[in-house]
Design a protein that fits this description.
The complex is a heterodimer of chains A (135) and B (108). Chain A has 135 residues and is α/β, with parallel strands linked by helices. Chain A is built from four helices and five strands, in the order E-H-E-H-E-H-E-H-E. The model of chain A has no long low-confidence stretch (mean pLDDT 93). Classes of the chains: A alpha/beta (135), B alpha/beta (108).
């Protein structure tokens, strides 16, 4: 029997390369704003965006020479903190094909892998879907 | 009738797609749909005076023009340079709009 996806208010599909512009910042800002309003949110990462939640990133970014003492969280840590803060409202999925092709495994614990052909199920399970970074 | 929240992240210098996306906002408004156009990231540059002329059409037609405060400040762009009629908003307002019944969101 297939998995029944929980309903969600919004799906944020992060499809583009994560570090070519501010897409990830915008996606996280919007996700947090939605969650703080009590909404349920799904995040789906594809392509190189699957690398955002690699365990190997650790908790912090490399030190910034201009601000040596400051601890900048990695994208994986940002995702973990968001997931830990809203465990009942936020679900984070990552495309299995893109994850394997780009060596993004293992992800941090809370990330759920899904095959790409199941993506349409996510579209059916939400009221609004936003695609970030596809054009 | 559907209401639209259109989110433009690229701006006039990001390629022709940005202009066409904003033009879509105008066409939707012309057809009677309520439209809010939210400019974020480099998209905020379109709302500066001299940025994207088509935004005047959207405002004349009664469309909402929202500009992300964070993105504007991040780029050190002066708020005084915004087109009259543009509204500075934060992400909470965008989230609230997206959660309204009947609102369809599109990101470019």
């Amino acid at each position: 029997m297939g998995r029944q996806l929980p309903r969600a208010d919004v799906l944020l599909a992060v499809m583009g390369g994560p570090h070519v512009n501010d897409t990830v910042t915008s996606a996280v800002r919007l996700a947090q704003a939605l969650l703080e309003r009590g909404a349920t949110v799904q995040i789906w990462t594809c392509g190189h965006a699957t690398g955002l939640t690699k365990q190997s990133l650790g908790g912090s970014k490399p030190r910034n020479l201009e601000n040596w003492e400051y601890d900048y969280p990695s994208s994986a840590m940002l995702a973990k903190e968001l997931l830990d803060s809203f465990p009942e409202q936020l679900t984070w999925y990552s495309c299995r094909f893109c994850t394997e092709e780009r060596g993004s495994q293992p992800h941090i614990e809370q990330i759920r892998l899904r095959p790409p052909f199941k993506f349409t199920e996510h579209l059916d399970a939400v009221d609004n879907a936003l695609f970030l970074g596809v054009c | 009738m559907d209401e639209y929240l259109l989110i433009e992240s690229q701006g006039p210098w990001g390629g022709p797609g940005a202009d066409r996306f904003v033009a879509d906002a105008v066409r939707l408004r012309e057809s009677g749909c309520p439209v809010s156009l939210f400019l974020v990231e480099n998209g905020v540059t379109a709302a500066l005076t001299g940025g994207a002329p088509v935004l005047h059409d959207l405002l004349k037609l009664g469309g909402q023009l929202w500009v992300d405060t964070f993105s504007l400040d991040h780029r050190a762009l002066a708020r005084e340079r915004l087109l009259p009629g543009a509204q500075l908003v934060d992400m909470d307002r965008v989230a609230a709009k997206l959660l309204e019944t009947g609102v369809r969101g599109v990101w470019h």
